[in-house]
């Protein structure tokens, strides 16, 4: 239907008068003016276009009306109708028929009303039209077509079906040569990968398989919903570049991600976000959400089984490639007596071989290929090394098929295309080999690091076990000496008693001699006691479970109604429900603040279970702006119940500054300064209700009016970080879009009602013999007449050169 860009011949000089010819011409009277009636082989020529018909009436030198088998042709565009009215002043032809047919190469339009401008080569259709182009189909209520660049503009109720996608929308600009499309308001796209895309403005580039959205973008996949003001979606890679007001809803992992710039990968579901990024972890069963923000954030979906399978496949491909290369080297070695000459890939064999092989050699010399054969000795080594050389294909095809092949032709562009394809294949295979080698190296490094880490962990566990055994033996020996000195009987097994047991509630927890074997001395904070399984004990099925990994960098902020935190970088792992905070982290829970070098937070069912603080941990509770209760040690572990700290264990060089208060009064009555090996304190309703000290506690209690000046009221590394404590608006200030999955999943795909109506109408017309589906062209006598008027056809394609087909890649054409 639509003319190609360029290559249409030189522009024809514009004539004011419409040239005409016919078998019979005679004057007639028409509305007080003279007109000319033309009958038999009528033809008009104007603006480089020709109009043929059975009969016509010429009202003036620029206005005529055509009847019967009307054909309008300019360049490759053919318009078929029953009647046409042509105005040479405006260069516009109105074509009338039950169905108007327009053809341009492999594109065909059927419509009810059609207008064609022979000067600008622009057509317009109305009342519905259907365009078919190769395997593609378009329809709309009305539209325009531009023959010079083969572009169709479809307007109102547009529907498209192509090899790659289905589309509905209000308006689309479609190029029939490149299949490039521009779409506008209310566009819905379904691609062959099962994804749905919505846009109010954008384009599709078939060459790069790229969907571009510049307004109100939305992508729906099986597991995610993605919103963004602007989207570049690479369909084959499942990769999207997002810009402006981004929201990603991962319903599988219950995660919302936000940002103003980011990238998204459909498989396995990774995302990178920056420019005010935020992540919301929601669980509808808990009724509370966790908000995280940072300067940049990464979301990964880790599938261990898939990673191992990909690694194995890459290694297998690399091994196969090596084996294939070795086989190809052998197959390329010339056999004894083999007289096939080496040729360059960029110089395809152009001689057709007939008769015996010796005759073929003679033909090669006569056709000038002896110069090419003379290069063979210089290229022998490279041919043996390069198993992918195009020459091997030439040699095989000549040995097998050259005796049966006739001379064929190949254009210069086809030769260039073959060379480009060969170079692309070689580049792709080299890249695949390098990727496989790199992946194998990464796997080796990862395995070595994992083994090293596990060895260190095992050594540390063995060391801790030995140390605990020695401490237990010393405690038992000390207790035995004390019992012997006081003449006490052998006690019940103290390892099964708890320091909080009702039998010992009356004891003085501050007395050094009141230390008993406590259940806390055992590993009361082990994962087993919390109903959790450590990562190292996961079975193979658990290790293969797909999990979510979130990383945040710079200015990390976390908010939930019951706790808040800040740090420089963060790693959250869904497999073991842990959040790891690094570089100057701070955690707030109610009126308590905890700082350390590293924090590990363990959760279950969206609830904090425990938190471990390593490296200068310090817990601070504010009484007023001058008095702070403080606890520090080498390591600290806080246990949570209902997302509130109820127990805190401090191990190693435990230090306490505690301001004592009356039970029913906020007034401070004294200061407790204490040091011990370990301690545990319990909190109820934001108040410390019990403290247990272990390993030689040393303490001093001062009345508030008797505190010596040299007593430090603040522990080392004390810093009250109230100004850094984030509110929800500091972490998340965006509007959450509600899910529209249900509405978009039920969106109607293209039904092509106009095409169905036109097809049915066309069948009825053909059956009643009122219309025929024409494909006739301009007759030779009309073409000769056009030549005499100065018309010249489009430029001819360059001459083709004869060539032997290469392994079926080249199509046979006539010389």
What does this structure look like?
The chain is an alpha+beta fold. The protein has a domain at 528-727: lipopolysaccharide transport protein A fold (Sandwich), CATH 2.60.450. 22% of the residues lie in helices and 41% in strands. The protein has eleven helices and 43 strands. The strands form two sheets. The chain has a 41-stranded antiparallel β-sheet that branches. The longest helix has 75 residues, at 412-486. Residues 337-380, 480-501, 795-815 are annotated as: Disordered. Residues 409-479 form a coiled coil. Residues 360-380 have a biased composition (Basic and acidic residues). This is Organic solvent tolerance-like N-terminal domain-containing protein.
Question: Short description, anyone?
Answer:
The chain has 815 residues and is α+β, with helices and mostly antiparallel strands. 22% of the residues lie in helices and 41% in strands. Mean pLDDT is 76; it is low at 1-11, 329-408, 492-542 and 796-815.
Q: Gap between N and C termini, in Å?
A: 27 Å
- Structural class label: alpha+beta
Number of strands: 43
Shape: elongated
The CATH topology of the domain at 528-727 is lipopolysaccharide transport protein A fold
Would you identify the regions where 5 or more consecutive residues have pLDDT less than 50?
Answer: 1-11, 329-408, 492-542, 796-815
**Proportion of β residues?**
35-45%
Structure annotation, total helices: 11
CATH architecture of the domain at 528-727: Sandwich
Protein name: Organic solvent tolerance-like N-terminal domain-containing protein
Organism: Alistipes communis
Region (Disordered): 337-380, 480-501, 795-815
Keywords: Coiled coil
């Amino acid at each position: 239907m639509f003319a190609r860009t360029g290559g249409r011949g030189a522009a024809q000089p514009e004539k004011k008068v419409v040239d005409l010819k016919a078998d019979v011409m005679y004057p007639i009277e028409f509305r007080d003016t003279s007109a000319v009636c033309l009958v038999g082989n009528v033809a008009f020529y104007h603006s480089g276009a020709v109009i043929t018909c059975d009969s016509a009436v010429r009202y003036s030198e620029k206005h005529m009306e055509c009847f019967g088998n009307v054909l309008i042709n300019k360049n490759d565009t053919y318009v078929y109708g029953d009647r046409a009215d042509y105005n040479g002043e405006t260069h516009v032809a109105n074509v009338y028929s039950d169905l108007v047919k327009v053809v341009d190469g492999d594109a065909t339009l059927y419509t009810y009303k059609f207008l064609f401008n022979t000067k600008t080569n622009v057509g317009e259709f109305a009342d519905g039209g259907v365009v078919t182009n190769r395997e593609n189909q378009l329809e709309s209520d009305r539209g325009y077509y531009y023959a010079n660049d083969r572009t169709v503009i479809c307007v109102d109720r547009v529907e498209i079906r192509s090899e790659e996608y289905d589309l509905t929308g209000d308006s689309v600009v479609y190029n029939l040569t490149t299949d490039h499309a521009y779409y506008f308001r209310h566009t819905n796209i379904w691609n062959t990968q099962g994804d749905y895309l919505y846009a109010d403005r954008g384009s599709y580039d078939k060459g790069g398989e790229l969907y571009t959205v510049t307004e109100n973008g939305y992508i729906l996949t099986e597991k995610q919903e993605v919103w963004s003001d602007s989207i570049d979606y690479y369909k084959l890679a499942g990769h999207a570049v997002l810009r402006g007001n981004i929201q990603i809803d991962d319903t599988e992992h219950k995660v919302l991600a936000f940002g103003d710039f980011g990238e998204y990968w459909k498989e396995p579901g990774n995302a990178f976000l920056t420019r005010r990024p935020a992540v919301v972890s929601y669980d509808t069963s808990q009724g509370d959400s966790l908000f995280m923000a940072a300067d940049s954030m990464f979301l990964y979906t880790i599938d261990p089984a898939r990673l191992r399978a990909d690694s194995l496949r890459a290694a297998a491909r690399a091994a196969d490639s090596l084996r294939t290369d070795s086989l190809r080297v052998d197959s390329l070695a010339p056999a004894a007596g083999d007289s096939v000459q080496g040729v360059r890939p960029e110089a395809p064999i152009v001689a057709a071989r007939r008769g015996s092989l010796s005759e073929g050699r003679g033909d090669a010399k006569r056709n000038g290929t002896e110069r090419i054969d003379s290069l063979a000795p210089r290229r022998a080594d490279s041919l043996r090394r390069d198993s992918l050389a195009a020459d091997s294909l030439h040699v095989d095809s000549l040995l097998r098929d050259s005796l049966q092949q006739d001379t064929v032709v190949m254009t210069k562009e086809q030769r260039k295309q073959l060379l480009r394809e060969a170079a692309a294949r070689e580049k792709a295979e080299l890249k695949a080999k390098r990727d496989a080698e790199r992946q194998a190296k990464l796997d080796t490094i990862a395995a070595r690091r994992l083994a090293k880490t596990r060895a260190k962990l095992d050594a540390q566990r063995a060391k801790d076990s030995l140390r605990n055994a020695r401490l237990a033996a010393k405690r038992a020996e000390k207790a035995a000496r004390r019992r012997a000195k006081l003449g006490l009987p052998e006690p019940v097994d103290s390892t099964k008693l708890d320091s909080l047991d009702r039998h010992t509630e009356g004891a003085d927890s501050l007395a050094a001699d009141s230390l008993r074997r406590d259940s806390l001395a055992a590993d009361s904070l082990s994962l087993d006691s919390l109903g959790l399984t450590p990562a190292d004990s996961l079975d193979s099925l658990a290790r293969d479970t797909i999990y979510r990994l979130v990383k945040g960098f710079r200015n990390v902020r976390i908010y939930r109604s019951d706790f808040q935190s800040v740090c420089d970088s963060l790693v959250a792992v869904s497999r073991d429900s842990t959040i790891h905070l690094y570089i100057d982290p701070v955690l707030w829970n109610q009126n308590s603040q905890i700082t350390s070098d590293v924090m590990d937070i363990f959760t279950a069912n969206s609830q904090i279970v425990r938190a471990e603080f390593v490296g200068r941990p310090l817990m601070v509770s504010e009484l007023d702006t001058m008095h702070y209760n403080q606890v520090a040690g080498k390591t600290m572990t806080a246990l949570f119940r209902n997302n509130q700290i109820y127990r805190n264990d401090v191990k190693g060089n435990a230090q306490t500054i505690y301001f004592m208060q009356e039970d029913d009064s906020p007034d401070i009555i004294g200061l407790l300064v204490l040091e011990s090996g370990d301690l545990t304190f319990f909190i109820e309703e934001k108040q410390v209700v019990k403290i247990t000290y272990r390993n030689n506690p040393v303490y001093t209690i001062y009345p508030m009016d008797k505190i010596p000046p040299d007593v430090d009221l603040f522990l080392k590394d004390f810093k009250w970080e109230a100004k850094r404590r984030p509110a929800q608006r500091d972490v998340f200030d965006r509007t959450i879009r509600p899910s529209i999955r249900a509405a978009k999943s039920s969106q109607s795909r293209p039904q092509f009602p106009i095409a169905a109506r036109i097809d049915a109408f066309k069948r009825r017309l053909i059956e009643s013999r009122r219309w025929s589906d024409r494909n006739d062209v301009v007759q030779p006598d009309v073409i000769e007449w056009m030549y005499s008027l100065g018309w010249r056809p489009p430029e001819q394609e360059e001459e083709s050169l004869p060539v032997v087909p290469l392994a079926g890649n080249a199509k046979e054409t006539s010389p």
